[in-house]
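Hey, I was hoping to borrow your eyes for a little while. I've been staring at a protein lately and its backbone has me curious. You're getting the sequence in one-letter code plus the fold written as tokens. Would you mind checking whether the tokens look sensible for this chain? Here's the protein in full, and shout if anything looks odd to you:
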Amino acid sequence: MARPRTPMLSVSGIRTAALALVDRDGLEGLSMRRLAQELDVQAASLYSHYRTKEDLLADIANEIMAEVDVSGFASGDWRSGLTVWARSYRAALAAHPNLVPVVAAGPGRREAALRRADAVHGGLVAAGWPARHATMIGASTKYLVVGAAMNSFARGFDDDVQVYRDRYPNLSQAHRLSEHAAEIDDDSFELALSAFLDGLDRTFAALGSDLGAARAAEG
């Protein structure tokens, strides 16, 4: 059988190539024409699989976010559920930082994203959080995770000691930060997550006390 002149396309192959392109060149580097060149096909060939670039990006976002674990909420332990969710969420985003603006966008109508949001919200409410607080906790966790995934504090400093010497005496070791960036970023995220959860513990206890007092007053 003769080999086809046009390479065979698959949805998974298109997604893989598009993600590699975004990882390398950023979101602005992705276009259907550019992707077709990477795959050595005509741009029209892509449209039989994806009508728009936005549809393609949504599919890629779903694939990346499939790694996010919300199963911990089923146990009824909201702190454990949040911890597992936040860590896996950050890991999924940090693996593809150029795609964070797409992945971190609201769930819209994406089925997988809505299932995760439902699991998080339902798990928090089932554990005793009021619905309003559950919504705010979900939002706050997202703010923490997305911020951690998009930027590296340590890598934001120059590794030339002369930049800081004399003029910035309190930053005399700043040139060493980039060398230890991964460790600093991981430990900083864990510190922020721990402080966040400890604060929620106190809020949860206070809510329980207020509810108990209200019930006693009614009785």
Notes: Residues 166 and 172 are 8 Å apart (CA to CA). The chain is about 60% helix and 0% strand.
